[in-house]
Structures are given as C-alpha cells and as structure tokens.
Write a structure and sequence with these properties.
Elements: H1 24-32, H2 38-45, H3 53-71, H4 85-91, H5 100-120, H6 132-137, H7 147-153, H8 169-198, E1 208-210, E2 213-219, E3 228-233, E4 239-244, H9 248-278, H10 280-305, E5 312-313, E6 328-330, E7 362-365, E8 380-381, E9 396-401, H11 404-417, E10 427-431, E11 437-441, H12 448-463, E12 472-475, E13 480-484, H13 497-511, E14 516-520, H14 529-545, E15 549-553, H15 557-565, E16 569-577, E17 582-589, H16 597-603, H17 608-617, H18 620-695, H19 700-734, E18 756-759, E19 765-773, E20 776-781, E21 784-789, E22 793-797, H20 804-810, E23 828-830, H21 836-853, E24 857-861, H22 868-878, E25 883-887, E26 898-903
Parallel strand pairs: 5-12, 11-15, 11-16, 13-14, 14-15, 23-24
Antiparallel strand pairs: 1-2, 2-4, 3-4, 6-7, 7-8, 9-10, 9-12, 16-17, 18-19, 18-22, 19-20, 20-21, 24-26, 25-26
Helix pairs in contact: 1-2, 2-10, 3-10, 4-9, 5-7, 5-9, 5-10, 8-9, 14-15, 18-19
Length: 905
C-alpha cells in the first residue's frame, strides 16, 4: 500500500532561489512558529518557492479560504498531530500490542481526522464553509468513517495511558475484586496493628507495601514476637516490615488478581491495536490532509497579522521590441543649466502617478542627441507626460510593500520597550515588460538594500504560496532568483570582496534568462571607481540585453546616466531630507538619487575644512548633477507637503460634515419629541372628554360598561399609535421600509426560554417555557399555561443565572453561611494517608462547601501509591450530583497524585 505523503511534494523548484541571502529560511521559521503540531511545523519548514503556476495558485487559494474561515470566527484544533507511520506499521502486525500512551496518541490523531471530516462534510442542518479548494484537498477523506473506531476506543484510555475501568467488563470485575481484597487485607492488618500497638511492638500505626504485598512496620527488637514473613527493613535498621501469617493467603489472592489484571490489560491493548491497524489507511490519509491544512492555517494567521495580500502573476512573455523611449518620472524638475526664465512644463494630475509615492509626473527624456559633440551628458525637458491608456498592465508591481522580517523585528522591539510599534516605510515598485531593469541610488543607510531584499523575499513568498505584506502585488513567474548582496569574500578560497562578487556575477550572467530575477547590491564597488563603473555598466547592459528582470543598487553616477539614456531601464532613488540631512527611506521611481556622502559626513561631525576641500575636488559636471538632484528632491518634498495639506483639508471637511449631520439628527430628535408630546396631549384630552361624556349617562350599568370598553380601546389604540409612530420615525431616519425589523423597535428581540415577559393583553408578567416559532411562545403565569404572540409581548426581562449560594440567599427568611468567606475559601483538599471511607467523607463535605461557595473547580490531592484511593475517589466523584467533570492534571501539576474536579454551576 502506498502511504500518503505527509510533507509537501513541490513541483518545478527554482533553478536558483538565493534563499539564504534573501532570508527565506528565517521567514519560514517564523511562519512555522504559528503552527501547533510538529507535523504542521515540518510541512512549513519543507516549503520552497517553485515555478509551477497551478501549484502556486492552488496553495494561495487554500490559504485564502483558511483565512476567510479564521476571520469568520472559525477554528480547528491541530494539537496532537504527529507522524503516525511507525506506530501504524506496528499496529498492522498480527498480535502486536501498542503501549497505552501510543494508543492514546493515535486515538488523538484519529479524533482530529474525524473532527475534520465532520467539518468538511457537516450534517444537513449544520453550518457549512464555502471553501472549494480545501474541500477538494479533503475529498479523499469522505471515503472513510472513523466514528466506529472512536466509539469503540474513546473513554477507555486515561491521560496517563492507563486503561479506564470501563475498558471491559472483565477489567472492571477484576478491579472491583482487587478493591475488596485491599479492604480485607487492610482490615486484617489493622487488627494486627491494634494488638501489637498495645504492647509497643510496632514502629508506627501504618500499613505499607513491599513487593506488591501489604506489610506492617515492626520495631526490630520485637520482630520475633510477630509471626509472619519479613519483607525487608528500613535504612536505619530499626524497623522491619512483616507480613503477618493471617494475611499471607489474602496477599497471594491479591497478587493473583494483579496478574489477571495485567493479562486483561494486554488483551485489551491487543484488541485496540488491531482496531487502529484496521483503520491505518484512514488515519494516514487524514493526517496527510491535516498537515497541509495546518500549514495553510499558519500562513493565514501570518497574513492576518501582517495584513498581507494574495499576489497575482502576470504574463512573462519576452517583448518583441525594446526600441521604445524610456520614460523617467520626475516632479516638476528644472535643469540648473537652463535659464531660470525657461517656461515651466505642465504637470500631469496626481491620478496618473502609477505609484503611491508623492510624485507629480512629468516626462523627462535623456536622448542620445542631448550629449552634444563633446560627449557631455545633459538632461533635457520635453513635452509633459500623458498617461498611455493603451499600454499593457505592469508586469511587476508592488504597491506599499513591506519587508516582513523588518516589520516583525520592529514590533518585537516596540514590545520590549513598551511603546507603540512602528511599521516600515512602504515600498512601491512598478516595472513593465518593456522596462525590466531598475537602478536604485541614493544616500547610505537610505534603504537601498532593504528595497532589494524586499523585492526578492516577496517574490519567493509569492511563489511558495505565502501571501505577501503589500496592498497590491502583480509579479512575473520567475524560474530563478539570483541575489548578490553583502560581502562575499572568502579567506578559504583566497577571494577578496571584489573577487568573490565577480565570481558570483560570472555565474549569474551565464545562468540568468529572461524569466530570472537578478538582484545586485552596490554593483561595481570594492575596486577602482572608474574601472568599477565601467564594469557595472557593462554588467547592467548584459542583463538588459537578455531581458532579465533586474534591480541594481549603486552610488555610481555612470549607472544613473546609463539608466537615463537606455530604453528599458528606470532610475529610482531613496529619499533624503536636505534640511535634517537624514534619509526618509522612501523609494521614488523615475528619479536618480544623490549619494549625499559629503552631507552625511558633515552631519556625522567631520571637520568643515575637510568637507570644503572635498567639495572643491568635485568636477563641475558632478556638482551640477548633484545640485540638480538636490533641487529635484526638494520639489518632490514640496509636492508631498502639498498633498498632505490637501488630505488634511479633506479630513477637516469630513469632520464638518459629520458635525452638521449630528446637529441635524439632534434637531430632528427634538422635533420628533415635541410632536410626540403634542399628540399624547391630544389623546389625553380625548380620553378626558370621553370620561366626562360617560359621567353624563344616567344608566350607571351602561356607563360602567362604556367606561370599561372605552378604556380598553383607548389603551389599545394608544399602544398601536405609539408603535406606528416609532416605526414611521425610524423609517424616516434610516430609509428602511416599515416592514423591515430595523424599523420596528417596538417588537422585542432575543427572547429566550426562562425570560420574564410582560403580556399586553393581561398586563401581567409571564415566564417563557418554550419557543414554538419565531412569532409564538408558550408562557406560564403560575400554574396556567398559554400561547402568546410576539405582538402581545411588551417587554422582556432576562433572568440572570445565579449560583446555588446566591439562589439560596434570595429565598426569604433563609440565611446561608459557610465556614469561611467564599472569596478566601481554599479550592484544594489533601487526603493523603486517609482510608477510602475517610477520604470519601472529607471530600463530600468539602464538595458541599465549595458548591455553596460557588467555586468553579476544586483540586483533590490523594497521592499515587497503589492507585486505590485515586480510583475509588474518582468513581465516587463521577457519580456525585455537584460534579460536572473529573480530570487528571498534567504531570508537572501532580499527575496521578491529584484529581481536578469541575463543579456544576
């Protein structure tokens, strides 16, 4: 038989994924930490990104359905799942017997599988989730039914793995015989102890056990006075343990019963093992399904926590032509070489901006003709940017994306500091099929490398079936992800930083294709700046030629110029505040960024003389480009400020609108109240006139009849008028139809059995005994029962459930007092050393006091010993009217030596 796979089988793994450089294992460990079973954790840890789109879509769909289930308040218990393969293989062996703990663990798995089958295939009237992908995953489980197995085994294994007395009638008979034999032996030994104690021969009035035989302690000097068998002595030698002659046969009988008990236990375990083996296929199938389901639940919890979104995958076809002009998005920039009097270009409306960054779009093209005969590169402005509505959708688009590990670390730091957690500055990147290469520049510590890692890690997450932290995500389907990030020097391989980067770049350049994502950090660094710049441009050109998706961070001006002059390449910059000389960590697409090395050095306190000398060494072209970029970013900041001002004005208008609506509602409420008062006054005047008219009637009998009838009719009309008036007001305020329940506040809602209701027809209070349907109830007034329509119910009073003590104290003339204040009453009793009868009496008295005090649960400490006291007490407790449940605490809280009891409320 082929066993189902308990770990994922992932098709079409990426040729290269750079998981270590992009910290995929760290993120995977974090998601695995959101599972509750070792099997679910192992499933997550085996997760890898792949290039099989049907598998990826299937994973995202299942995670989305589990997310919807969790958000709707649904849940499922995954604790207790483990790999049951070895135990089930053992269970299939004829005549084998699993240990009690092993049977318990397999039974827990079977219960989880049965519960899941009920969840996906509920009874006809039970709620049903709309999750087609999860339903398809679990479909094979419908062929199995584990309920007969659970009915056969459930309740027969204790939490510690021992068998319950109800495991079989024979086991119950044997254990009852053992208990009787225990009592007989104890009674016989007590008689012997009383006789010996009078002569001072015994060390203590105590019955103990040695080698499964009951014995009594006797002082060593009197051991010859007690006829019997010695079963050892104390460590000091002052006490010997003797089995009196009259109890030897009784102990022999007890040993025989113990042997019978073990034989019966073995027989039951063999039967249980055989039953589990017969259902091994169902258990393995369900376990494999639940392992994946838990992985989706963990991913769903991660997605809810970080507000993630499901990515979509766009067509990754290679463009047939890359001859289009490159569009670089700027913000009303001016060239410092152009006269200040030059006309300003018109800016496009903010809606045309393809990103969430505060950028007002203006087209700036760097044409080959702008270089001039001297070869000097200049920026030139052209016609304003107009959105092209015919262009295809972006192939790669991340809107307001966040690095998940960075956000989690910021949350952890905030928790440690006791402050409110901040979120990373969101990243927005948009690349098209015609412009697949992005050059990111800007100051040190500005977030260039984080942008690179965010793009790479989110791509791996998307292709591993994990939702990504972003508002929107449209990604190509990558067949490989290459990342050259950080210092890759190796002393063992005799490689410097530059050599290691070159070796890595050589491998990437040979293996990367048009469906690859290439991430290069600080390309061209760690060597001579001129040679490094030339090499960086050549490498970037290579990846542009093969049409690979590529993102490069740099400080090199040559790469910024390369991006401006080549179709298919976009510039981007991380923000820098010129006033405070600090990075803003915002990524702005379409503009190159200045490295601001001198500004940062100045902020860090480097000597002004050194800074001035450095500035004098800069070439005129470099200074002009730096000035241009500084001016450009100032204008972008101004645009962002203006947008923020507009947003604040919109918020102010919204608040004013709310204020006016509130005042209008208050005025309307006042007018409604005034109208209601006037109408009530008219009704009162009418009733007064009617009463005066009745008084004028000479026939007293007729007058009394008319008075009664008119009073009843006026009361009914007043009630009906009030209901219609309220309904009309609500309908007017909400726009609801008068038949809508929301427009009928006079109709009571939420009536439950046991509530007290006021009947309009009788003017008396009745108790609800039964709900016949949504509009009819069976009520009782004393011994009289009747049916009442919902229209006849005026008000509802919910009856609070009181504790027995509270209920008793409410009875007139009765005073209930407990030995101690219930707030200080202990919830634990210790009966170690008591006989069964003594323990029963003490526990029963303690139960009564705890029940009257309203305690929810108590704890009984009885010790381990031979288990006699534990079994008899638990049997007594299970039949006690005050007890709801009897459980054994965990091993670290007493285990078999204690019992926890939940009391009825």
């Amino acid at each position: 038989m082929n066993s189902p796979e308990l770990l994922p089988t992932i098709p079409s793994l990426l040729h290269e994924s750079s998981t270590s450089a992009l910290e995929w294992p760290r993120l995977r460990d974090h998601i695995a930490g959101r599972t509750f079973s070792p099997l679910g954790r192992a499933w997550i840890l085996a997760l890898e990104p792949c290039a099989d789109l049907p598998w990826i879509d299937q994973q995202h769909q299942r995670t989305a359905e589990m997310r919807a289930m969790l958000l709707s308040g649904g849940s499922f218990e995954f604790r207790g799942l483990f790999d049951p393969t070895l135990l089930l293989d053992k269970a299939r062996i004829e005549g084998s017997a699993l240990e009690g703990l092993e049977v318990r663990d397999l039974l827990t798995v079977a219960e989880r599988v049965a519960a899941w089958r009920t969840l996906i295939d509920p009874p006809p009237n039970a709620p049903r989730y709309d999750w087609p992908a999860i339903d398809a995953l679990s479909g094979s489980l419908r062929a199995f039914d584990l309920n007969p197995l659970l009915h056969q085994l459930r309740g027969k294994i204790e939490p510690d793995g021992s068998l319950n007395d109800d495991a079989s009638p024979e086991l119950r008979r044997i254990r009852r015989a053992m208990e009787r034999q225990h009592r007989a032996i104890e009674e016989s030994l007590r008689k012997s102890l009383r006789g010996l104690n009078e002569g001072g021969s015994t060390q203590d009035e105590l019955i103990t056990i040695r080698g499964e035989r009951f014995v009594i302690p006797v002082k060593a000097e009197f051991k010859r006075k007690v006829p019997g068998v010695i079963h050892g002595s104390s460590s000091s030698g002052q006490t010997v343990f003797i089995e009196p002659l009259e109890t030897i046969e009784q102990n022999n009988e007890l040993v025989r019963l113990l042997d019978e008990e073990q034989s019966e236990i073995h027989r039951i375990l063999v039967a249980m093992t055989r039953a589990l083996g017969d259902n091994a296929t169902a258990i393995l199938t369900g376990t494999a399904i639940l392992a994946e389901v838990e992985s989706h639940a963990a991913r769903a919890r991660f997605a809810i926590d970080l507000n993630c979104t499901r990515p979509t995958f766009t067509n990754n076809a290679v463009a047939t032509s890359t001859a289009t002009n490159n569009v670089v998005i700027l913000s009303g920039a001016k060239n410092p070489r152009i006269s200040p009097e030059a006309p300003q270009t018109r800016t496009a409306p903010p809606e045309s901006n393809p990103t969430n960054n505060p950028v007002i779009s203006t087209e700036l093209r760097a044409s080959e003709a702008s270089r001039g005969g001297s070869g000097e590169t200049r920026f030139s402005t052209t016609t304003p940017y107009e959105p092209n509505t015919q262009s295809p959708d972006p192939q790669l688009s991340l809107v307001a994306a966040r690095h998940p590990l960075l956000e989690l670390r910021m949350r952890a730091s905030a928790r440690e500091a006791g402050t409110e957690a901040a979120t990373p500055v969101p990243l927005t990147i948009t690349l098209t099929n015609e412009a697949r290469q992005l050059i990111i520049s800007g100051p040190n510590t500005g977030g260039k490398t984080v942008s690179l890692k965010t793009l790479g890690l989110l791509s791996l997450m998307a292709q591993a079936g994990v939702p990504i932290p972003a508002e929107e995500a449209h990604l190509p389907l990558f067949t490989s992800v290459y990342a050259d990030i950080g210092d890759a020097q190796s002393i063992e391989r005799n490689l410097s930083s530059f050599s290691a980067h070159v070796v890595n770049l050589d491998r990437i350049s040979r293996e990367a294709t048009a469906s690859s994502l290439v991430l290069l950090d600080e390309l061209g660094s760690a060597t001579d700046p001129e040679e490094g710049a030339a090499l960086a441009v050549a490498i970037a050109q290579h990846f542009l030629d093969i049409h690979a998706w590529c993102c490069i961070t740099t400080h090199l001006t040559s790469l910024k110029v390369y991006a401006a002059n080549h179709a298919g390449v976009l510039n981007a910059a991380v923000g820098f505040d010129q006033q405070t000389l600090t990075p803003t960590y915002q990524l702005r697409l379409g503009v190159p960024g200045a490295s601001a090395g001198l500004n940062i050095a100045s902020r860090l306190g480097l000597s002004p003389e050194i800074i001035a000398a450095a500035r004098s060494q800069m070439s005129t072209q470099t200074a002009d480009i730096g000035a241009f970029l500084d001016q450009l970013h100032d204008q972008l900041t101004a645009a962002a400020t203006e947008r923020e001002t507009l947003r604040q004005r919109e918020q102010q208008l919204a608040r004013e609108k709310i204020r006016l609506e509130t005042e209008g509602r208050a005025e309307q409420k006042a007018r409604t109240k005034e109208l209601e008062t006037k109408l009530n006054s008219l009704i009162e005047d009418f009733a007064y006139q009617l009463r005066e008219t009745v008084k004028a009637i000479d026939d007293k009998t007729l007058a009394q009849k008319i008075a009664r009838d008119s009073a009843t009719r006026i009361a009914r009309l007043r009630r009906e008028f009030s209901e219609q008036f309220n309904s009309t007001v609500v309908a007017h305020n909400t726009g609801a139809d008068k038949a809508d329940p929301n427009a009928q506040p006079h109709i009571p809602k939420g009536i439950k059995v046991g509530d007290l209701v006021k009947l309009k027809s009788l003017g008396r209070q009745a108790r609800v005994d039964r709900i016949i349907d949504a509009k009819t109830y069976e009520v009782s007034i004393g011994p009289m029962k009747m049916r009442a329509a919902i229209d006849d119910i005026a008000e509802v009073e919910t009856v609070k459930v009181a504790t027995p003590l509270e209920a008793a104290r409410k009875r007139g003339g009765i005073t209930i007092a407990t030995a101690n204040d219930p707030d200080y009453m202990t919830s634990e009793i210790n009966v170690i050393g008591r006989t069964a009868d003594e323990a029963h009496a003490e526990v029963e008295r303690f139960l009564d006091r705890a029940f009257l005090a309203g305690l929810p649960c108590i704890r009984i400490v009885h010790g381990t010993g031979m288990g006699i006291l534990r079994r008899t007490l638990r049997e007594f407790l299970r039949n006690h009217p005050h007890v709801a449940t009897v459980t054994e605490p965990p091993q670290n809280q007493g285990g078999q030596g204690a019992t926890e009891v939940e009391l009825r409320q």
